[in-house]
Amino acid sequence: MKLNWTDSLEIAIALDDKFPDVDPQYVRFTDLHDWVMALSDFEGEADKSGEKILEAIQMAWIEERE
Question: Which one is the CATH code of 8-65: 3.40.50.300, 1.10.1520.10, 1.10.10.600, 3.40.640.10?
Fold first, then answer.
């Protein structure tokens, strides 16, 4: 399944699988952006994200972790 910026829950699940030892609450948006771009199933464009999208991904990751 190919992921894009609007797939915040699926991205959060993939990040949680890839970074199990990272506390998503303390991830900087610049790192989060890089990590999302590096996901093997991600096909979104780097310049199509913004703070609101990254925040939604981070919140989904925090909720997924709980």
Answer: 1.10.10.600
Tokens matching residue 9: 């829950």
Give me 26's structure tokens: 């303390």
In this structure, what DSSP letter does residue 54 have? H
Question: Measured between alpha carbons, how far is 16 from 32 in angstroms, rounded to an integer?
Answer: 12
- pLDDT averaged over the chain? 97
Q: What is the pTM of this model?
A: 0.94
pLDDT, mean of residues 31-54? 97
